[in-house]
Each structure stands twice: as structure tokens, then as C-alpha cells.
Amino acid sequence: MKIVDPIVTFCAAIIALFFVLNGVASWSIFQSFELLQLFPSFDFVVWLLAAILLIFSISIGGRRVALVVVFFMLSIQLVVRHSDRSVGFKPNAARGETLKIMSLNVGQFSNDTGVVRQCIELIRSENPDIVCLQEFGLYYKWPDVRSVSIDFAEKINCTYFDFSPKPGNIFGTAFFSKYEIEAIDTVFQLLSHTNEAKVYTVNVNGKRLTIANVHLQSYNLFSVKNSASLTSISEAINARNAQVMDLLEFEADAMVGDFNASPGTIVYDKLCAKYVDVHRTYGNPFSFTHQSFPTRLDYVFVRENNAIERFSVNADSPSDHKALVIKLSF
Questions:
Q1: Residue 306: is it exposed, middle or buried by C-beta count within 10 angstroms (0-12/13-18/19+)?
Q2: Cβ(157)–Cβ(177) under 8 Å?
Q3: What are 196-239's pLDDT values in tens digits?
Q4: CB atoms within 10 A of CB 89
């Protein structure tokens, strides 16, 4: 017991430090400390570890006052961060036109034709009007980006589409629609990664809606040599912060995709300042969009003048991300 108590106290101190750093991660004053924005991705993990440690301490009859305090603090932080804070948003207030949108990071299909078929089956089962995919691209069956666009669009019953990665890339974002695409604006487009964002203007029975398909800067930890260094992670966070500012200038009606940012980061807070996080307001904000890691990286953001008739997270995706489906009324 004499050995365990100081260890438990030390762990409680570390958790308390995490609580503080996690809490200030989204403060703009600390934006230059890029690595702080990693902490929100681990808030569920640390909360679970604190719970396990607390149970262990109680079971052996050790000191636990400090652990109870930090566990309570972490719990409050989780609830405040992930619970719904929107005001005046009425998700069930139906409007004139409706549009069903699906977003999914397909993970480059794992370069597997079987995964491609599963993604197509998933999309067909949801039958959306708009499909926004991230990390979409070629595998050995398709010879060029035009071929993959046509083939995929036919299989998911969409007449209009856009897959035009930066020259030299074979992966990027892709947009498929049952309604006419009247305009496409590129927010940013990177050569070395699959990260890009585009804003599409679609004509829905005479009404125009702008939808952003987004894949913000990822860490690409295993793509190039030394990519897991702290410097490269800091650069990725800086790039993501800049990309979201460019994205917000377009003032799209809705934004969907893989934002590579957990709730509590600067990117997330900047988006929530102008948009409603549909998952948080209408879904279960404590559910995760990554298949294996307990965090939210994928989002649907809408303006408050749009109404949500339905929102769901589909975990049947063969990708490492879950699919988000929204029925939007405008």
C-alpha cells in the first residue's frame, strides 16, 4: 500500500495536468502551441483510464481523494465539451425542399475491390441525393480519374459528379449528385496528400444550395519518412488552422467531411462559431465517427436557417471512418 499510494497520487497529478492542457487547447491565445490541440483527441481515453484507476484504488482501499476530484473534473469537462450548446435550433422544423446527403471517408478503398463493392452497397442502401467522399480515387481496375468517376456514378445512380484531384494525384475528394451541379469552387487542393476542400452549388428544383466537401489536413503519420515527428505534426495542425479559415470565407450552406479535428480544438470551435454541429445537436455527441479510436473527426455542419429532418451515423462502412447521413430541409 505504501508503494501504491504515491503512484496513484502521481497519476492523479498527471491527469490533472491533462485536464488543464485539454481545457485550454481551443483558446486562440495558445494557437502557437500547436501540440496542445492533440489533447482533445484523447479526452475519452484519459477519462476511461482515470475511471479504471479510481476503481483500482477503491478496490485496494488506497488513497483516492485526489483521484475522485480529477475524475469529477474530467467528467464535467466531457459533458460541457460534447453536450449540445446550440440555441434556437429546431431540427424537426421542415421546410420546402429536402435533400439527403451522405459523407464518408472511404480510406482509398484500402486498394481493395471488395471494399469498393461494400461502399457502393452502403451508398445504395441509404439512397442519398448527394454523396460526398473523401480519400476517393483509383485502384487497379480504373485507368484514370475520369473512368473512376463515370463508373462509380453509374453504380450509385447519380447523374452529376466531380472527381478532379490536383494533377499528379490519384486520390482526393469526390462529389456525386442526383441534382445538377451549377458551380464548383476549390478552397484548397494539396499535391502531396489527399487533403482538399471544394464548394459545390447544386440546383434542387430551382433552389440553390452550396455544399462543401471537406478533407482537412491530416497527420499522414505513416506516409513519408519522419512524418511522425513533432515538427511535422505541428505543421499539419498549423495547416489545418489556416485551411478552416479559408473554408469559412466561402460561407457554404452546409459543410461535410473529414475535418481531422476533435471537439475542443481551435478548428472545431471556429466552425461552431458560425455553424451548427448536427451530430452534437441532433445525434449522440458521445458516439464516435472513427471505427477504432474513440473520437469524432467527421462532421456535418449547417447554418441555423436550415432544418434537419434526420441524422444518423452508419457504422457499416468498410472504411476506418463511419458514414454520416443527413436529411436536410431548406
A1: buried
A2: no
A3: 999 999 999 999 999 999 999 988 654 554 455 778 889 999 99
A4: 16
Measured between alpha carbons, how far is 160 from 26 in angstroms, rounded to an integer? 38
Question: Which CATH architecture does the domain made up of 98-329 adopt?
Answer: 4-Layer Sandwich (3.60)
Cα Rg, the chain, nearest whole Å: 21
Would you give the DSSP letter of residue 12? H
> Do 281 and 84 form a contact (C-beta atoms < 8 A)?
yes
Q: CATH 3.60.10.10 in the chain, residues?
A: 98-329
- The model scores a pTM over 0.85: yes
C-alpha 330/C-alpha 308 separation (Å) is 9
What is the helix (H) or strand (E) element at residue 52, kind and residue range?
A: helix 43-59
Q: What are the grid coordinates assigned to 234, written together?
A: 505541428
Tens of pLDDT, residue by residue over 113-141, are: 899 999 999 999 999 999 999 999 987 66
Q: Which of 187, 211, 185, 204 is nearest to 133 (CA)?
A: 211
Our CA angle for 74, 79, 84, nearest 5°, is: 155
